[in-house]
């Protein structure tokens, strides 16, 4: 994605976002703008607030100060606004969180049918397209418990895409996977990024970041320590903490 | 990530072998399971002796001394109590419809369960062969209805499952309407006052009404207890803890004596009051069981549902409750079985369900002192129904299991 293609309005705007768990100050003034089609990678040590932050974008966590505007809608306590934002933002979780009592097909068509009110036929047609896109159309009638971790995560991506979201959020999508399954999930995500989807990805997969990220943000202790293009972050990290963290995760 | 550049020398893949087979003769099985050591052999001999002795004296009593005629002479009372003879066909109609529905549903959902189908399908015919003239006809019709229902399930080109579900939903109010009737003597279904309901009929009605109404109420209370709204939550907690702190008998007495006082003047039927007591009591326990299921659902399920834009109602109905209820099926069915047996307590407030009838029969001068025969018969009825509920729950669990979850 070149610079000129995203001179449009930002689709996610975060201004001075704060969040506390009890007395613990988890997010300490996050500022970020994400443009349409931009792929953002967020990385940092555990406890740095990166997962908390990505979960404030669709209000799975509530922020307590500052403002978050997603696709022109300001996140407040208004439940209808929150549901509108959730319809426009797909989310993929570390633990997949597929619905174990439903088949793969029903997992994917549930929200389109019950939230978007599509007909079952229409929803199933789109679901099959998505399953082909993530490479597992033959698994449609199985239950999540019968699939491998990599397959489950690809179903989870298809489930999120079925709502035709404008933004996709990924919260450590490959952290719970066996090594040989990470690639099949990353390949789907790379294809998605190439198709122009706006993506916010919390991950430690630096190969993925280098390949598709437009901007990388390094989080530590609830703040953004440093941000920039992958070339800049990998080639010329300006902060000691960034340099130290990168050396730790790239060395092994 | 790196692949070695030298040609790897893989060992030959291990041969795939079949699992070892174990074959026993009957003697081998006995030896292995009953006579493996000298003390196991000793225990086997002792227990075999005890069982044989007990079984022999029991059989001797049952075949020579027991006066089973008390059952035959009062069968009508045991089954329907004082329900008028002219209206007994209505109770039979309910049974026949039930057989039709069971046969139909079995054909749709349980076709693989051959042994169960054959034994349950044969039951009415076996009973008909053994029973008195009076009930032979209706039993044969019941058995045939089951077969017809099963045959109907092979009907192509219709939405069988939908028909079956509608059938079950309609069945319940239909039974109440059939049994209770309406209007005076000239109406096609004359009203049968509830004080004439009795025996197994009343036991089953109390149970079914108890289950059908307390289940949704219990789910609502469980959700209320989990609710984020403080008023809803505290009301649910107060209700649940209050009812759980009181024995069922007290609730039944309250329903009989206090309810009319609260609803000044309005008279409520005695059976309805007992039903209300059972429902309100059972709901509190159900709520706690359902809560256990709700707590077993990981947070990720809520988050995934919310992230997809589902509102609270849809999330609960489509994602959380199906999983929570599935997880507690054995506990719920256990509670329904307990409810079934607890209906015998309504004898305290003067209703003659199965146990009440048993006492009434024993009070007849002709049958004084026949406790063993009467109570064994009653126990057999309770046992059969409880076993059926238990077997159904195991079947349901297997059917709903979706691999590892």
Description of the structure:
The complex is a heterodimer of chains A (252) and B (405). Chain A has helices at 50-57, 79-88, 104-114, 120-133, 149-161, 179-194, 206-212, 230-235, 240-251; strands at residues 10-21, 24-35, 39-43, 65-70, 73-74, 89-92, 167-171, 198-202, 215-220, 223-228. Chain A has 252 residues and is α/β, with parallel strands linked by helices. Chain A is globular and about 55 Å long. By secondary structure, chain B is an all-alpha fold. Chain B is built from 16 helices and no strands. Chain B has helices spanning 26-33, 38-65, 69-80, 88-109, 114-130, 133-152, 160-180, 199-226, 230-244, 248-262, 270-295, 299-307, 312-327, 329-342, 354-362, 371-400. In chain B, helix 3 (69-80) packs across helix 8 (199-226) and helix 8 (199-226) packs antiparallel against helix 15 (354-362). The longest helix of chain B is centred in the last third of the chain and has 30 residues, at 371-400. Chain A binds chain B through residues 58, 60, 79, 83, 86-87, 89-91, 93, 95, 97-101, 110-111, 114-115, 143-146, 159-160, 163, and chain B through 298, 300-301, 303-311, 314, 318-319, 322-323, 326, 400, 402-405.
């Amino acid at each position: 994605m070149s610079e000129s293609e995203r001179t449009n309005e930002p689709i996610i705007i975060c201004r001075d976002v704060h969040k506390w768990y009890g007395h613990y100050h988890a997010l300490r003034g996050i500022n970020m703008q994400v443009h349409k089609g931009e792929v953002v990678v967020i990385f940092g040590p555990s406890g740095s607030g990166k997962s908390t932050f990505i979960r404030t974008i669709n209000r799975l966590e509530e922020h307590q100060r500052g403002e978050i505007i997603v696709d022109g809608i300001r996140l407040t306590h208004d439940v209808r606004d929150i549901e509108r934002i959730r319809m426009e933002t797909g989310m993929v979780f570390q633990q997949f969180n597929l619905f174990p009592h439903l088949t793969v097909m029903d997992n994917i068509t549930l929200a389109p049918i019950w939230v978007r009110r599509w007909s079952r036929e229409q929803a199933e047609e789109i679901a099959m397209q998505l399953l082909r896109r993530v490479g597992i159309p033959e698994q449609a009638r199985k239950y999540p418990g019968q699939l491998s971790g990599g397959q489950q995560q690809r179903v989870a991506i298809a489930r999120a895409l079925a709502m035709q979201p404008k933004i996709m959020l990924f919260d450590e999508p490959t952290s719970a996977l066996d090594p040989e399954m990470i690639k099949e999930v990353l390949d789907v995500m790379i294809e998605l990024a190439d198709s122009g989807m706006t993506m916010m990805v919390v991950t430690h997969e630096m190969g993925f970041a280098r390949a598709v990220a437009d901007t990388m943000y390094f989080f530590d202790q609830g703040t953004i320590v440093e941000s920039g293009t992958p070339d800049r972050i990998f080639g010329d990290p300006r902060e000691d903490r960034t340099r130290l963290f990168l050396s730790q995760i790239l060395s092994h | 990530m790196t692949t070695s550049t030298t040609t790897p020398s893989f060992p030959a893949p291990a041969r795939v072998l079949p699992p070892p087979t174990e074959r026993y003769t009957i003697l081998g099985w006995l030896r292995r399971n009953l006579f493996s050591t000298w003390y196991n052999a000793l225990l086997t001999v002792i227990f075999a002796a005890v069982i044989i002795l007990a079984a022999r004296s029991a059989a001797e009593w049952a075949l020579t001394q027991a006066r089973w005629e008390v059952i035959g002479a009062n069968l009508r009372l045991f089954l329907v109590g004082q329900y008028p003879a002219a209206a007994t066909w209505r109770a039979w109609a309910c049974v026949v419809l039930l057989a039709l529905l069971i046969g139909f549903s079995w054909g749709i959902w349980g076709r693989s369960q051959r042994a169960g189908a054959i034994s349950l399908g044969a039951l009415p015919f076996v009973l008909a062969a053994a029973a008195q003239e009076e009930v032979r006809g209706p039993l044969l019709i019941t058995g045939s209805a089951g077969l017809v229902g099963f045959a109907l399930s092979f009907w192509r080109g219709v939405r069988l499952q939908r028909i079956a579900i509608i059938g079950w939903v309609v069945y319940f109010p239909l039974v109440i309407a059939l049994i209770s009737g309406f209007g005076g003597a000239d109406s096609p279904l004359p009203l049968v006052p509830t004080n004439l309901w009795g025996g197994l009929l009343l036991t089953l009605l109390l149970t079914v009404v108890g289950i059908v109404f307390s289940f949704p109420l219990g789910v609502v209370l469980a959700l209320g207890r989990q609710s984020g709204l403080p008023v809803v939550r505290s009301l649910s907690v107060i209700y649940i803890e209050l009812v759980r702190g009181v024995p069922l008998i007290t609730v039944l007495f309250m329903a009989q004596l206090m309810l009319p006082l609260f609803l000044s003047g309005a008279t409520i039927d005695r059976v309805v009051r007992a039903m209300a007591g059972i429902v309100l009591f059972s709901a509190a326990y159900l709520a706690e069981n359902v809560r256990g299921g709700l707590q077993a659902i990981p947070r990720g399920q809520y988050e995934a549902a919310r992230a997809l834009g589902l509102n609270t109602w849809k999330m609960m109905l489509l994602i959380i409750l199906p999983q929570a209820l599935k997880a507690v099926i054995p506990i719920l069915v256990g509670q329904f079985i307990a409810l079934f047996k607890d209906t015998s307590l309504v004898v305290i407030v003067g209703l003659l369900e199965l146990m009440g009838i048993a006492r009434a029969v024993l009070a007849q001068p002709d049958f004084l002192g026949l406790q063993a025969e009467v109570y064994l018969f009653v126990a057999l009825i309770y046992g059969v129904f409880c076993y059926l509920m238990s077997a159904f729950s195991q079947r349901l669990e297997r059917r709903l299991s979706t691999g590892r979850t």
